[in-house]
Amino acid sequence: MNKIKLLSQNVINQIAAGEVIERPASIVKELVENSIDAGANSITLEISMGGKDLIRVTDNGVGMSREDAKLCFVKHATSKIENESDLYHLYTLGFRGEAIASVASVSLVELKTKFKGANLGTEINIEGGDEKKISDIGFNEGTQFSVKSLFFNTPARRKFLKSDSTEYSHIADTMTNFALCYPEIHFKFYNNSKKVFDLPKVSGLEKRIFDLLGDNYAKKLIPVFSDHKEIKIRGFIGDLESARTTKSGQYLFINGRQINNAYISHAVSSGYSSFLPEKMHPCFVMKMEVDPQIADFNIHPRKLEVRFSKQQDVYSITKYAVKEALEKGLSNNFNLKQNPFETRNEGVWELKDERIKNNDKHLFKSNFYTPSGYQNTGLKLSDKNIQDSLEFSKNFSQEMSKINFEIHEERRTSSIKPLTQVKNSYLICENDQGLIIIDQHAAHERIIFMKLKKNLLDKTVSKQQLLLPLQLNLSYKEVEALNANKSLLEKIGFELEFFGGNTFNVLSIPSFFNHDDIEFILKGMIDDLINEVPVKGIEDKEDYILHYIACRSAIKFGKFLNQREQEALITQLEEAEMKFTCPHGRPTMLKFSFEELEKKFGRR
Ligand SMILES: Nc1ncnc2c1ncn2[C@@H]1O[C@H](COP(=O)(O)OP(=O)(O)O)[C@@H](O)[C@H]1O
Ligand SMILES: [Mg+2]
Question: Where are the domains of the chain?
């Protein structure tokens, strides 16, 4: 017999929690957002075991009264909105009133808080949504949430969590975004009691970018600025040389939220127009303030997306702002006329409005920056020097794909003779049996893959020490990806030394690699590792990584090879095991025997 029962609130919470609380990083995001909404200017995050064991966020915000401290665990209890119309005038990061209830339903939560001006604070312990203890405590003004044993009561969901290192890297990513979006907040971050970063508050975004992402984030940062009535833009875009093969250097914030928006990313790229080499992505840290009436953040439970009612306007305003910034920034690059961006100081972007710290439902209004010293140089894209830089950017694109594969071994002759290269992609060759067409990228991929594999299996790794170690400046997420795979990389010849902060030194590389491309190859590989790009036809995790490197370092389609390079490629391919297919199983060469040709021509 069927009997319909109402689910308990606790079960409802657990179901809904699936949307908001996907992994430890989502809890970090919710807690830190609450601290920001509470007007904190100092926020500390401590985690252990990738956040599975502990996530603790401590802030110096307004805190909560004993009554509010109890209420915050009730689903749909929020101090941020009152009615539906408030949803269209959102000035806070939170508004659903469900995060704390959801977190508490799947973990052990300890809350300590003291309301501004109160004598005593409150401590509440909740286990899987049930209140266990409430007491008065002495505590600093502010709030501390400790979330322990995530998914302790839903083991099936705990099983779905990734390794500590992967979960850590998601958290590091979340924190990186917060730190970039809020330079006026002091952020501290500890992982397993070790400091990851301690970023004192600064008044300028540029300083925060350097403190957090390092000097190598961009060779040069160009301020971007727009003051349209409904859409305001402040931030920095990277120069041409800082463009990357992926979008990993793009940080977008809209109304104080980290947002994934392919549309705006595209608008930025199109602002670079032909300046940007093909398939390269600019890096940028861009903050937009959009009139809440034209932006809807209530379309994704984790509020990572936004929908605009005036899409076209947002696109063109962004594109134009980037284009204008670039024209000015590039003129500066070539030391033309006056230089409005000379001052790389914190004062360039001043805080105009102090955040209003009260417990009003509009906790704080927009925190806009005004650039000082920003003037129009009157330069246009037609200027000669800008044309030069355009030329430079095109060459640069070729440079980036340049893989100069030197023959380190003695030259040997092959039975296959290259006749010519067509489309800068295929080698047309002959041997005594017929005609052979080689796919230069697939062939080189196989060669490198087998050499890496040999290094991995051999006891003595064939590697070359670099005269000067190569410094890799990475994001925290990238550092983690590299750390997690360090031992494998060492087995194939990349000797890496953690230099502290977010810097790695590369001490040696596989002997058959060309120095010039190492940074490009390693950064590309790290991106693949982070994105866990699946490789068709390969199952083994180690082989995956070898393939990432092989694919990133193999000569590209469209690259001209001279006679000697063609011969070297063929000789090496002939010596490679499994030479007829690339690591994905696609052919590296096609053969047409003379007999076949004769048949086709009707001679037989
Ligand atoms: N760090 C904090 N400081 C002060 N108040 C907080 C803090 N975290 C949560 N709160 C209070 O608890 C309420 C519920 O939080 P939450 O479940 O995240 O929902 P929302 O943020 O959507 O309102 C908030 O509206 C706020 O009043
Ligand atoms: Mg919240």
Answer: 9-199, 205-396, 417-593
Residues near 531 by beta carbon (within 8 Å), at least 6 away in sequence: 246
The ligand 1 atom at the shortest distance from the C-alpha of residue 59 is 1
Check if 99 has its Cβ closer than 6 Å to any atom of ligand 1: yes
97 lines ligand 1 (CB under 6 A): yes
Distance of CA 168 from the midpoint of ligand 1 (Å):
24
Compute the distance from residue 225 Cα to the ligand 2 centre, in Å: 30
Look at residue 595 and give its three-state secondary structure: helix
Residue (of 242, 200, 204) closest to 220 by Cα position: 242
* Average pLDDT per 10 consecutive residues for the chain, totaling 604 residues: 61 58 93 96 97 98 94 82 66 80 94 94 93 93 97 89 92 96 97 96 93 88 91 93 88 91 90 77 94 72 70 89 86 40 30 30 30 34 46 42 36 78 94 93 93 85 86 88 90 89 89 79 87 72 86 89 91 87 85 90 88
The domain made up of 9-199 has a fold known as Heat Shock Protein 90 (3.30.565)
CATH architecture observed for domain 417-593 = 2-Layer Sandwich (3.30)
Task: Please state the atom number of ligand 1 nearest to the C-alpha of residue 78.
Answer: 25
Given 3.30.230.10, 3.30.110.40, 3.40.50.150, 3.40.50.11540, which CATH number is that of 205-396?
3.30.230.10
Rounded to the nearest angstrom, the distance between the alpha carbon of 37 and the centre of ligand 2 is 8
Nearest-CA residue for ligand 1 atom 8 is: 34
From 57, 100, 297, 363, the mutation candidate for ligand 1 (largest count of ligand atoms within 8 A of CB) is: 100
Instruction: Give dist(CA 317, CA 423) in Å, integer.
Output: 39
- The type of residue at 490 is E
Buried b (16+ CB within 10 A) or exposed e, 138-156: ebebbbbbbbbbbbebbee
